[in-house]
Amino acid sequence: MRRHDTPTAQPSRATGPRTAEPDPATMAEDPVRALETAIAEDIHAGLLPPGTWLKQIMLQERYGQSRGDVRRALDRLVAQRLVEHLPNQGHRVQQMDPARLEELRQVRLVLESAAAELTPLPVPPASLARLRALADAFAEAAEQRTILDQNEANLAFHAALLELCPNRELARLVLETRLRMPSAPLTQWARPGWVAESARHHHAMVAALEAGDRAGFCALVRGHIRAGTP
């Protein structure tokens, strides 16, 4: 029996009902996006726990969608790092190794602190306006959007911050390190209030950059990572 055929590895209806039925209007407009969101919300709710193998036939039955849409939704979830694809085995919900997560967080602390120190000041008004808009978008997502929207808005904000760093190799290393970590909804955002805390941190970073406060900005970046917020 293969590993993902064991009873403990298979997802089943015993994990509980779906968190909510996909919105019919959204499903009609973009069925893959709606399916992606539905699976992500079930992962976040613990109905599809880390390590659960996601067989396509099971997902077709669970969500009532076509095989092609299921495949495309899984591809998107792999890109979001909520799901991992193992060649010749299949897809499963991303697993977390606490020790490895802490090591990666320490690497992030070193790299992102260095990138913050190198950020040229003053920041051009156009760049500040873009960062403020992205911080606002994340805050809105934190209150009203799905966890996928929150994750995408968070990544967009941090990518824009890194665009300010003149050392492009350092910026690339930061992004690569972030991509090696499980998606935020699987880790940091599983705790109540942490999405809102991230939103406050983002706005504080923009305010520090606008004030030309390098020490304050660097302290905020370090505090953001140490607090465990993504």
The CATH superfamily title of the largest domain:
GntR ligand-binding domain-like
CATH class of the largest domain: Mainly Alpha
What is the terminal-to-terminal distance?
38 Å
Number of strands: 2
- The computed structural class is mainly alpha
Q: What characterizes the major β-sheet?
A: 2 strands, antiparallel
Mean pLDDT: 84
Q: What general outline do the C-alpha atoms trace?
A: elongated
The helix tally amounts to: 10
Order of helices and strands: HHHHEEHHHHHH
Second-tier CATH architecture of the largest domain: Up-down Bundle
Question: Any idea what the radius of gyration is?
Answer: 19 Å
User: What is the domain total for the residues?
Assistant: 2
* Quaternary structure: single chain
* Spatial strand arrangement across the major sheet: 1-2
Instruction: Extract low-pLDDT stretches.
Output: 1-17
Helix content: 55-70%
CATH topology of the largest domain: Four Helix Bundle (Hemerythrin (Met), subunit A)
The amount of beta strand, in percent, is under 5%
Indicate the topology.
Layout (H helix, E strand, L loop, with lengths): L23 H6 L1 H14 L11 H8 L3 H13 L3 E4 L3 E4 L4 H21 L6 H20 L2 H17 L4 H12 L14 H17 L3 H13 L4
Antiparallel strand pairs: 1-2
Helix pairs in contact: 2-4, 5-8, 5-10, 6-7, 6-9, 9-10
Describe the structure.
With 230 residues, the protein is mostly helical. It has two domains: 31-93, Orthogonal Bundle (Arc Repressor Mutant, subunit A); 98-227, Four Helix Bundle (Hemerythrin (Met), subunit A), CATH 1.20.120.530. It has helices at 24-29, 31-44, 56-63, 67-79, 98-118, 125-144, 147-163, 168-179, 194-210, 214-226, and strands spanning 83-86, 90-93. It has a two-stranded antiparallel ribbon. Strand 1 and strand 2 form a beta hairpin. The longest helix is centred in the middle third of the chain and has 21 residues, at 98-118. The protein is elongated, with a radius of gyration of 19 Å. Residues 1-17 have low confidence and may be disordered.
